[in-house]
Amino acid sequence: METSRRNFAALLGALAAAPLWDQAVAEAQTQGTVTADTLRALLDAQGGAGIFADPARFAELQSAVTRSAIIVAALRAFDVPADVPPAVMFSRS
Amino acid sequence: MADELWFQSIAELSRQLAARTLSSVALTRAYLDRIERLDTPPFPLPAGPQDRPGDRLASVTTVVREQALADAAEADRALAAGPPKSPLHGIPYGVKDLLDTRGVRTTWGSQVFASRVSDRDAAVVERLRAAGAVLIGKMTTAEFAGGSISTALNPWKLDRSTQGSSSGTVVGVVAGLIGFGIGTETGGSIVFPASAVGATGLRPTFGRVSRFGCMSLAWSLDKIGPVARSAEDCGVILQAIAGGDPRDPGTADRPFQFNTTLGSLKGVRIGVHRPEIDAPEAAPNRRSFNDALAVFRRLGATVEDFVLPVRPYFEVFMHLTSVESAASFRRLFTDGSVNGLFPYNWSRRADWMAASMAPAYDYLQAQRIRQLIVMDGDALLQRFDLVVCPTFPGGAPDRYAPTSPPLPPPPVSPAPPQLPRLNWVGNLSGLPGMSFPCGFDPDGMPLALHLMGRPWAEQAVIDAVRHFQRDTDWHTRRPPYPWRA
Fold this sequence. Notes:
The structure holds two protein chains of two kinds.
Chain A: H1 5-31, H2 36-46, H3 55-77
Helix pairs in contact in A: 1-2, 1-3
Chain B: H1 10-19, H2 24-38, E1 60-63, H3 65-81, E2 92-96, H4 123-130, E3 134-139, H5 167-174, E4 180-185, H6 191-197, E5 200-203, E6 223-228, H7 231-241, E7 269-273, H8 274-278, H9 286-298, E8 302-306, H10 313-328, H11 330-334, H12 346-357, H13 360-383, E9 386-390, H14 422-429, E10 433-440, E11 446-453, H15 458-471
Parallel strand pairs in B: 2-3, 2-4, 7-8, 7-9
Antiparallel strand pairs in B: 1-3, 4-6, 5-6, 5-10, 9-11, 10-11
Helix pairs in contact in B: 2-3, 7-15, 10-12, 10-13, 13-14
């Protein structure tokens, strides 16, 4: 399978996104907002910056990412017993 | 023709249609004329709560006049030739504009799809057609079933919210514009507007009704259900639309046979989630809720309080819905049509982008907590036959109230204290639930209870509400016209 430069860049972005997201969660908890630098890096990794280039839309996204990061922080803080599987099970009926 | 015809039950209309003292064409024309007089919006699609001149209810996005009259004439011919296909034969209905209808546009509430015409019917529409029901309207929904939740106006008071994306269906039912309606629910979009507008709405068990041909908001949470003017009507409608469908792998092979024989409530154990009645926002309405619970007690049920365990219910629901809808609507970003969303929904573009940034393990963590919530619900419904709470403790808020809660100040606690809501348990666990009117708030707006049962126990839920509605008349109250401003 051939991998184009664009695909390779997207793959690198995806690999970088998880630590960036962790940083966003930490910023949301400690500073009350995800910083613009972190958000730009996340957007670059996503490859969907277009409609959020406008400052008002960027601010909207910053609020949304902060809200989402706060929610994720609450989910991560909740202790689930190790033997509880996710409610997403593949089965053949 | 008496005004009351528009508000008659399915059983009453069905009897007259079968006896041929009423024709489906006359009934359909009556509803269509009423839509024309009270509803037809002066704009192509409702573009948000701020754009509502006048007192038209904006509950119907597309009126299906010619096809409805042709289908009604066909129903009359069939009823003259033999027995009715079902109790719905010849009765006009409206379906939320998320469900495909062959040859009639399905917009999902968005100008992006204002001209979208499917060449197929949704499974629910197929089944209602087979039952002989007559489609007369595609009912207004908030764009992509989210964002602004008051795209149809509340006939009880025009400046109050209709509280959910099935608001067009619910308003149409309560204002007597359709015989019954079909809504969808991901986290409350049937029961919340049913409460705010005074209808009876049923969220079936997850998997009871096929979603084939319906817009997906969140695959693991979406349900389709009936909205009507009584619990009995909901039972009749559910029988027509329920059952397995290989085109929707989420369905179970579980048809529903509505038993119209009503037993007793004696010995039925009803659990009350007391914190939602004791919540500060419920204070002005507490007496109404307690009076309604006393009705069940008087009818022989045992009524006992319980308290839900502390779980991040809201966070689980929000994360699952956001991530699944971000995946569902990803193509709006890739083809650029995301630029065509109504301005009121621009914040959702940001929400979808935000949700798509979170890694998969956060989604799985939310699904693991959901599994705990499902087990909680199962244990609760071993202790009780039914559980109940106010559908919306504070009644219908202002139509212009913001729909997103403000961000908390830093540093943010990882587990902010919140009032557990039984609705989240019902929706995350796929439990059947029914919202039904139980009084009015001090401003004359409808209040409702939300009764839930075990998976596949719709009959028990419907029957308990049928008992309540035989003993009370809240579900028969109609908003007076002209509507209050």
